[in-house]
Amino acid sequence: MNSSLLSGLNPEQRQAITLPHQSALILAGAGSGKTRVLTTRIAYLISNGAVSPHGILAVTFTNKAAKEMVTRLTAMLPINTRGMWIGTFHGLCNRMLRAHFREANLPQAFQILDSGDQLSAIKRLMKAMNVDGEKFPPREMQSFISSSKEQGLRANEVEAYDPYTRRKVEVFAEYDTQCQREGVVDFSELLLRCYELLSRNAAIREHYQERFKHILVDEFQDTNKLQYQWLRLLAGKNNSLFAVGDDDQSIYAFRGANVGNMQELTRDFHVQNVIKLEQNYRSHGNILDAANALISNNRNRLGKNLWTSENGGELLRVYEAATDVDEAAFIVDEIRQLKSEGINLKEIALLYRSNAQSRVLEHALVSAGLSYRVYGGLRFFERQEIKHTLAYLRLMQNTDDDNALLRIINFPTRGIGARSIEQLQEAAKQNNTVLFDTAARAGGKISAFVALIESLRDATRELPLPEIIDHVLEHSGLTAHYQNETGVKKREAEERLENMNELVNAATLFVHENEDDSLTSFLTHASLEAGEHQAGDQDDALHLMTVHSAKGLEFHTVFITGLEDGLFPHQNSQREDGGLDEERRLMYVAITRARRRLYLSFAQSRMLHGQVSYGMVSSFLRELPDGLLHWITPRVTAQNSYTLSPALSHQGRGGAASEAYVYSPLSPERERGGGEGAARQSPWRIGQRVFHQKFGEGVIVGVESSGADARVQVNFKRAGSKWLALEYAKLTAV
DNA sequence: CGCACGTGGTTTTTT
DNA sequence: ACCACGTGCG
Description:
Elements: H1 2-6, H2 11-17, E1 24-28, H3 34-47, E2 56-60, H4 63-76, E3 85-88, H5 89-99, E4 111-113, H6 115-128, H7 138-150, H8 163-182, E5 184-186, H9 187-200, H10 202-211, E6 214-217, H11 225-235, E7 240-245, H12 260-268, E8 275-277, H13 285-295, E9 316-323, H14 324-340, E10 348-352, H15 358-368, E11 372-374, H16 384-397, H17 402-408, H18 418-431, H19 435-441, H20 444-460, H21 465-475, H22 478-483, H23 490-513, H24 519-528, E12 542-546, H25 547-550, E13 555-560, H26 579-591, E14 594-608, E15 611-614, H27 619-622, E16 629-631, E17 642-644, H28 646-649, E18 661-663, H29 678-681, E19 689-692, E20 696-704, E21 711-716, E22 720-725, E23 731-733
Parallel strand pairs: 1-7, 1-8, 2-3, 2-6, 4-5, 6-7, 9-14, 9-16, 10-12, 10-13, 11-12, 13-14
Antiparallel strand pairs: 14-15, 17-18, 19-20, 19-23, 20-21, 21-22
Helix pairs in contact: 2-3, 3-4, 5-9, 6-7, 6-8, 7-9, 9-11, 13-26, 14-15, 16-17, 16-20, 16-23, 18-19, 19-20, 20-21, 21-23
The structure holds a DNA duplex.
């Protein structure tokens, strides 16, 4: 049994999997078989009789990762994973809180606020408290509350030495009171409340400590302070905490992840030896060498060098485009070529730093007829029509849920205007009750709404879940509302109706897959697993996504696009402490996604925030060893680039400060790019120095040609930026 | 009440 | 360029 589990593993993997009952930190590099080690260890422990499935707690960050773990485990062991505690931090905390709702001081059917719900709850509260939304942006308030909780701090524990922070703390405190009154918890509350439950209630804590002999954590570098505290509490003094992570892939510090947890773990749990998994099974040598060279520029690493037994493979292909459009065109050409060589589209990924960059790429792909999938869009359970439907269901179940009530009291519109709602809120505040109870005592349209909710609840009491939803859709007026849409909104409404129908399907599926098929359980599922819920995994389509969402994935070919300073590394990162290092880790993650071929591209100019901006090649590209790169376009060097003063290169509104920009000139041998049509052969290229009778000396920074009306944008030393029609302007190249 | 228009902001994201 | 949000009018 054991021998088959352990076959094909390298010594370090084997060592990690078979460690005795002790805490351990596994430093697992990209592509080193991290998930395999984690799941195999669980299988090993169980099959060995060291622990029963009952005694395992395995934690991940995403539902996807949790699902993957369960799938692999069932393939290895003939066990029922249902009773096992494998899930996300939030999912597991939810499970514990449901089991001990009384001790946690929560209603049995407490509901979970997602980020959107939380934001509207905060806005509502701020209005009621008369907090100036200008001085205290609700989003900032939201992140203040969440990050405080993720530090393990309640409002009364947050240090506030200035009136501004004190006000924020007041809102924080009041917000928690409001949530408690309404019987809802937000994401970070799930964790904090569970942590408090365990730390305050010795009986419960000891019960779980007794039970979970082995705790395993995936992507440990992404844990925040509270998550680590929670793990420590559960592990107690005697249990084993087996953490797998990679400090070089820590890319979520911006949302509170604390890589320092890795060092703290080794201290707190007296980890004897950190096991390093350094053999990479994913990428060819040159790709790995590039990744290693790049990441070696980071300070404060735990230290680890990935190696592979594969040969060097291809060089990394570097392309300098004139514009973002040109970059996209190049990528399309290359993809066509790859396709003709038999590479499946789904084996190719286009990565970018920020979502806005997908647009140009998508446009080029559509024109080329290449199918693609963009990741990270609006999630299924976050769609407006779905949220509305869920709000009816929530309110039916828990009339204390003011958030839900406010969302639907006038949707579909039933003549309850803003004024009436305001009055209702005031009355509720006076009576110190939730909105629903006050509404029940009102008259007219408002009490009709109350009657509607009650009749929905009564009529569906005995129905199975999918039929409950179906009934609500029909009788709330939602279906009718979207059916009645006409004109430009017709298409959109049809899609929404489809989604509502899909919600019924999702409920049907949920009932089949879950023992607990109650409405509460389904609503929890909806909040906690907002869900990929995207069909088409089997389709052969390109993957378009941010570098962040690419973590954990791998592809035959990867295009890393937009490698320009200011974009990647991102401008805003340079303000933050350690920001550049995190960007570099992000680049490291991007590079290590590629198995066989890697493209690195950048553009001299791109459309950003509605105006053309000019960037220079990313410093990260310059950190890669020359010998690993194959420049498709002539190599950029420091000597042949121009520097423009900020005053000349910027003409945006608002007078925001801008950096100096460097342009690398296009050389004549360049095979591709240089814009469209006329610009390709003409001397009017970006970077060309020109002279104009009236404006004097300048540099071409933009070229636009549609047939005869070719125009160039020139930054003149004296006169600033001008668009000139080539037909009329007397320009001379210098 | 609901639409039309103006304004401001715009890194990354899971739960 | 694009989207989300707020204000003012019919």
